[in-house]
Amino acid sequence: MLVYSSETIRIRYFMDLLMEHKHPVMLVGNAGVGKTVLMADKLGSLSEQYAITNVSFNYYTSS
User: How many Cα atoms within 13 Å fall on the side-chain side of residue 33?
Assistant: First the structure.
């Protein structure tokens, strides 16, 4: 569940703006600050014309 605050609204605005101009979005921050919740909220609001794929990374992931 996303709690809307001035911070989440600000981040969501910039996510919308970047995606509107076809730029990638990457959220970076400490564990537990809501990156996944924010992204899930944004992806859940997209139309069905978008294909969504989750790719998990961790310190074991190599290039």
Answer: 9
The confidence score (pLDDT) of residue 61 equals 64
- Kindly give the confidence (pLDDT) of every residue in the chain, 63 residues in length, as a single tens digit, with 9 standing for 90 and above: 888 999 999 999 999 999 999 999 999 999 899 999 999 999 999 999 988 888 877 777 676
User: d(Cα 43, Cα 50) in Å, to the nearest integer?
Assistant: 9
Range of the domain at 1: 1-63
> What's the structural domain count of the chain?
1
Contact 26, 36 (CB under 8 A): no
Q: Report the amino acid identity of residue 17.
A: L
Q: How many CB atoms lie within 10 A of CB 38?
A: 19
